[in-house]
Each structure stands twice: as C-alpha cells, then as structure tokens.
Amino acid sequence: MATKKATQPESMLTGDEVYALHYEEVHHRLGVDLEKTLTTDEARERLAKYGENVLGMDGGVSMLKVFITNLINPMNIVLILAMVLSIVVKDYVQTAVIAVVVLTNTLIGFFQEFRSENAMAALKKLSAPTAKVVRDDKAAMVPSPEVVPGDIVMIEEGDQVPADIRLIEAVGLEIDEMLLTGESLPVRKHVDSIFANDGEPVPVGDRKNLAFSSTIVTRGRGKGIVYSTGLNTEVGRIATLLNADGADAFVEYDTDGNMSTMKRFRRKAANRIARMLGLKKSTKTPLQKSLHNMMYMLLFFCLILAVFVFWSSKWNITDLVGLYAVAVGVAIIPEGLPAVVTLTMALGVRSMAKQKALVRKLTSLEAVGMVTNICSDKTGTLTEGKMTAKECWIGGRSYAVTGTALDPTSGSVHNPEGKVITTEEVRADAMLRPFFSCASLCNESSLTPPEDPESDDPAKATWNAIGDPTEIALQVLAARVNFGKPVLLRGPTTFVAEMPFDPTLKRMTSIYATKSEKGAYTLDYYMKGALERVLECSVAHYDATGKIVQGLSHEFVASATHAMEALADKGLRVLAIAHRAMEWESKDLPTFDFKERPTVEQQMVFLGLVGIMDPPRETSAPSVRVCEQAGIEVHMATGDHAKTATAIAKQIGILKPGQDELVYTANKFDALSDAEIDALPRLPLVIARCSPETKVKLVAALHRRRKFVAMTGDGTNDAPALKNADIGIAMGLMGSDVAKEASDLVLTDDNFATIVAAIAQGRRIFENITKFTLNFLSGNVSEVIALIVGLAVRGSDDLAYFPMSAIQVLWLNMITSSPICLCLAGEPAPKDVMQRPPRGTVTKNDKHATTSVFTRPFLADVGFYGTVAGALSLSGFIISLATSPLGLHGYNAEVCASHSTFDEELCGAVYEARGVAFMTLNTILLVHGWNCRRAYESTLFGPESGIKHNMPLFWAIIGGFLLTLITILVPGLNTRVFQQKLFGWQWGLVVGFVVVFLAASEVYKLIKRRLYARSSAQGRIDSPIAHEQIEVSQIRN
Questions:
Q1: Active-site annotation, residues
Q2: Which one of 331, 496, 555, 690 is separated from 1003 by 20 to 30 angstroms, measured CA to CA?
Q3: Strand bridging mode 210-211 / 164-176
C-alpha cells in the first residue's frame, strides 16, 4: 500500500500562533500526518522550497578584506617605498619589476589565504551542529541546515535546538534561552497549549511549549515538530534586525553625551585598519603574529641600513646611492615568506582532516605540537565505545551473558547453573522481571533490527542502534530475553516521567504506568546508576531465593561492593539497578517535576549489578607507548569505577606495575587543596568517578606545573574543561554540540590514536615551517652581507658598485627561494618526530626553550649559513672584478648601475662580476634547500640524504637553476633588467664556492651533532621521572 504523501504548507508557521495550538493542529497545518513522519524525498522537496536552515548572516570569507590584508603589510610597504624611490631616480625598468613583484606577491598571498579561509569554513561546517530527526519512520542524524518545517526533531541534554519547534514530548526538559530572553536560569518546558490573557500575546520567554533555534538543552529530553527555520525563527528575526543598515544608521548621536553611532563606526573602521597592519588583536596564529612582528622589525632594520648606505656615501645622495638603498631594502625582506606560511597552514588543516581531526581554531594547528599531557576520557576514546553486557549479579548470584554488541540474537543469558534462561522464566520471576525491565525501560536508546538480513549491504543486513553505548548494551541485554522496549510497551504500559541522568548524582530514574482492568495504575520506578548512588536510595534487596529483604545490612552492602569490585577487576563497567512499584488509585496519570526528584528516588528495592565490557581499541596501547616516547604523559579521567578504570589503564600502558598509588577517585582528588595537590610528587594518572569539575581541577593543577594540556570531552558539562585546556578536543561522533563549540579540535572517529596522530602532524607542520623560514632568512642575511660589506668595494668614481642589483635580489627571494620553501613545507616528518620532548619545554638541560620558531639554535643557523653564503657570493664578485683588465677599482660605478644603457667596454667586467655573485648565491640557496631538511643530519651522507626522500624538492632545485640560467643567457633581459651578463672561466668559482658552502655546512652540523649527543647523554626523556622535569615555557608572540 502506497504511503500518503505529506502536503506542503504554503508558508512556515510563526511562534505567535503556534504556542496556542495543540500539537496535533500544528501537524495538520504543516501538512504532516501525526502517525507518519516526512520521507527523505519530502524533506528534500521542502528544503528546496524553504531553503537551508541558516541565518544567512555570515557572508563567508571577504575577498576584499583578504586582498587588502595581503596588500598592506610591512613587506609590501618596503617594496612600495623602493618602487617610489625608483620612480624618483627615473629607473622605470626597476619600478616596473618591483610593481609586478608587489602585485604577484599580493595575489599569491590572496589566493592562498582565501583558499585557506574557505577550507577552514568548510571544515567548520563538518563540525557544525547536527540534528536528530525522524524521517522514513527512522531516527537519523542530519546537518542542522538540512532541517525543514514538518521534521520531527529529538533533543536531549547538551544539544543545540536546530530550529523553532512545537514540543510534543518533554521529559524533564529544561532549555537555556538566555540568547533570546536574557534570563540566566533555564526554562522548564511542557507540551500543553498556552492561552493569552486579555488578548495580549504571550512573551517569548513564557512560550514554554516551544523550543527555539540556537538555544541549549540543559536537562532532560524532548521531541517536537519544526514549524519555522532559518531567518523565520525567533533568533532569525533578531539577526534580520541586526543586519538592517538604513541610510541613517551612522548619523545618530547620543544626547546624553555618550559615544555616537558615527563615532563608533569611525573607531570600528580605524580598528580594522590597525588590525590589518598588525597593530590590533587579530585571529592570526602565534606563528603568524611572530612573523608579522618580525616583518616590522626588519622594516626598522631596513631604515637603519638605508641610513647606513647614505652615511657611507657621506650623505651625497645621488641616483646610484638611492638605488643601492633600494637594493638593501629589498634584500632584508623575505618577500615570499608570508605566502608560503599561509599555504602551509592551509595544507596543515587539510592534512589534519585526513587524520580525522577537524581544526576549528587555526591556533591549535601550531599549539598541538606543544602538548605535554593528554587528559583523555576512557569510553569510546581509549576503548571501542561498543559496549556489551558480559555478566549480571542478581540476588547474590552471577548470570553470564554471551553474544556480540548490537545483535541480541547472537547470544543469551545463562543462570548460575549454566542454563539459558527463557522469556517465560523471566516473566515468572519476581526478581528477574523488574531487573530486565529496568535495563530496557530506564533507557533512552533504541535498537532497530536489520531491514534485510540476507542483503549484501551491511547497512541493511545489520542491527542498528541510536543512543549512549552503555544504554545500548543494556537494551541489547534486555532484548536477549525478549524484554526489549518495543515488546514491553506494546501492552498497557505507558511512559510517565523521567529523572534524567545527572553527572553529579550519577543515576537516572524512569517512571512507567501499567493500567489495570479496573482503570487504576501501577507505577513502576526504574533506577540505574553507580552502586553507591543507587544504594543510598534503596531500603531493601532481594536474596538468592527471590524474596525481598527489608533493610540494607552491612553484610549485604559489603557483599554488593565485593561483587562490584570483582566485576570491575575484570575490566567491566558496573551499573547498579533498582526498582519499586506502587499503586495509583486515580484514573489520571500523575505528573512529576524535576524538583520532586528526591521524593521520586527513594524507597527503592535493590535488584543487582550488570557488568558491561568496553574493550580497549587495538590502537590505544601503541598510541600510549608513542606518547611515552614523545615525552607526553597520558591521564585517564573517566566516570567509571576505579577498578574498571585501573584494569583498562593497565591493559593499554597508562599505568605501569607498581603505580596503583597514582589511581585516585574524584572524591579523593577533589578533597585535596591546591597546595596539597602541588605537593604531590606526581599527579594521578587515573581519576575514576570523574565529574566535570574534577577535570577542570586537573587541568588547573597541570597548568600550575607549567604543562601544556590537551583535554578530551563529549558532554555539555565538559565545556569548562575544554575551554580551560590549552587544546580542547571534542568527540565528533558522541560529543554534544556545546562541547564541539568549546573545542579547538573535533575528532571525527572519537579515537585516542587520532589525537596522537594529530600531535605528530602538528609537530611535522611546525618542523617544516622552521625549515623553510631558515631557508628564507639565511638567504636574506646573505644578501644583506653581500650588499653592506660590498659598500667597501668602490669604483673609480669612489662610489660603491652593486654586487647585486635590486631585481636580482627580488629574483632570489621570490623565484629561487619560494618553490624550494613550498617543497620544504611538504617534507615528511622525520622518523624521530615523536621521540623528542614537546616543543617549548624547559628541562634541566635546556633552560632557554621557547615556543617560537626563533630559538637560539635557529638564529645561530640563520647567522652561520647566511654569513657563509653572503661571504662566498661577495668573494665571487670581488675575484671576478679583480681579475678583469681594469682591476677592482677601475670602473665607473655610477655608469655601470644604470638600467637604461649598457656599454660592453665600460661595464662588461662589472656585469660579469654581478652575474658571478648572483649565480653563486642562487646556486647556494638552491642547494641550501636540501641542507635545511635536517638540522643535524649530514646533507650529503645522512640516512635520508638521497633524492628519493623528497623528489619535488630535487626537481625544484634543478628547475630553479635552469630558470635562473635563462636570466643570464637571454640578450637584453640580462643586461637591461638584471644588470648582468654571461661569464666564462668564473663558472669554476661558482662550483668551487658551492662545494665550500657544503663543506662548511657539514663541519657545522658535525659540531652540532656532537654537542647534541653530549647534551642528550646528560638527560634523556625516556625515564619514568623525566616528565616531571619538563615545563612549558611561556608563549612568546
């Protein structure tokens, strides 16, 4: 029989009319059958009609803003000044070349940053809030923008409401509506219609049968039908008002003398300009801020060097002196560096995504490599998250459970004698019946049988479940004895109320009513939770014969505790189950408010325990070992019992033999003062029964020890800990929307191994940034040395020659270095990247560590390589010119510095000398790219020195040399633009100087290796106590 297609309404409904309607009427007006949900095709049609469920206020990435940001920066300021100076001295060839460089560099930076911003926006969409909707009569997760009017939406604690909905079910539902109303307290919701008094509309804050888009569910759960999406929602109306910019929007003045709107607008515009110039706080990463500050520092040095050039000419500022100052200014600025950094960040975001870690904040891309401590949840992160009940303890006796996760037909429940218990036996047993009923009904999960068990499609041939893994395991357990929720609710049993799970109370209670033939009801209260929390609500228990024993004796509590510990010792997560029944004489079902929880959760009869197995992931133990080698300490912060947590921690290597004293319960840890915690020789590695507040306290304790902390979380209450941690990591599969919004990274597979992979990726990215920054800056140092020292080499007119022209310098910085640095940005991680201490750590052997690229060893490398390369380049110029017919000082420097004319007889030797200096430095910088791959390893004889280890870099070196060769071979281009010409015997000098540079580099690295080996021998990081000697230095932006 064909399903009747829903009729699309002409328009959405508004909150002004919906709150007074019964939800059945809302269904009717939205064209949805109360008994049927929308199909996928119908939802697609409505999406096409009404549009995406977005506010539409984010215009995306501004192309103009990105372009201006790349145009106005210290590097381009220097180039523009150089261009203006070239115009003044009428050197139009150089002016044109510099203009092309400014435009090219701006466009390269623009396109790379624009792509990076769009990639970040796309990844944020992947981690954007999702909605649980019912379509095709099945629950499914869809992106919030795809929610349409008529959808049935299910919400629970921690969810962000995806659209405006009319509630049709509310169980202890409270929603934080401060976004709309300004009220700080959550609003208790219900499903009844609301009617206005005296015809006045009901204020938004009093529409308690509605849930509004973008508000946060703080307690309970609910279900409702979407009546409005996008800009038609209540928050959409506000967004529309905020976006309106009439003609008078910027001309209103406050009569009380406060700042006018016009003044605020001017200030906002000024702040934007200042931000683009790097003078205001921006969203740049610490590395980008460091490089930005470095650019301003180089701009300052550029001015100092220009003054030095003018001083050396005795303030006789001729056209030649001006052009020389231009060349020096161009030499000190690494023109290609910002663009390469931007591209590297974009590639980093993509590589992280491939590792199943979505970067929500760009700062985390660098910071993740600094992590010294990981505080991880257990369930679903260190373990598989697919829990299966393995053993029950009921009435003092053990019941074994067999079978795999999800499929209830794959196993059964066995009594203490080993016999499979049947459904009839459970129904007839006064103790087993409420036990398995509680497992089924005190439960928010749902279990769906396969569509076609014979299908080749795994999605159709397997059981599916939605909900918390623990509750799914209990639902499967109940279904093994045919006590699943659909079975129990077929008859006269009706859901009444629920006291949702509270992370502080660590228990949950559901209330169901069963109607008798006389019309009265029997109320069943089902409770599950932590043993100690359930026992405090219980007044009786069952004995082995199935009889109720009043009171909880010390012997019974000890017996239950012993049974719980025995299950926990097996690595099982243990939940306690209790029940009570009472007669309700009224024919009207009772209602319960959350405030009545203490009254509801009392007089319970303790039923027993269930042990649930959540095995460790296969990748967890190897990942923990990698962390240990990398100087990263792993802490487990879990809500499970200490015994369960300890068993798993030992299995995966967080706890070593003899470290049981490093296992704390939350109560024990929370009871310690900050001073007492700081006095501990070592912080706990495992904290059991952990609450969100305990996680915050653990992060604070680690920070006081100057650790750099990554914290995982999935619940709403984990948001403070995620915010307080240096790197907040949310779970993409099981995490709440609030947790994702508070995080820096979102794991798409909830796997601990992904965290470790992300750290390794972060270390690789930063390592490569260091490599190409070294290549850029050592090239700048070499050019400055050649030009500044070259001031001493003067012609017959007592003016300094140009060892290199400004255009040659631009070529070296843009064409020679940029491709090399791009190849370095893609360099694979060294094999020992996870065998070093975290970046920025301070140990007893390194008291000057910094999180910046510009460490002391890095600056030493820049100084050494730059000085050697610059000296060799200048030596080539001097030797070539000194062996010419007129000698070192025999040529007119001013005549030989003009782009407009070239006289072979007067300036041929000078142009040849420039060609030698240029080709020498160009070849050295190309080879230096390979040299930058490893800070300590030999460039020529190291284990990864072969060209197969980075083929793109090898071909970039070959291509860079051939391309530069064209500039010296093509007539006109060589003399009129680059002010150089082809030379002969001096090629021997070029080859010889490259060999000298490589030899000097090898000797330098040999010395570094010996110093490093001596330092490593004095203090290694692989000892158990070495981690306590590691501290994170302050971030220096």
A1: 377
A2: 331
A3: antiparallel
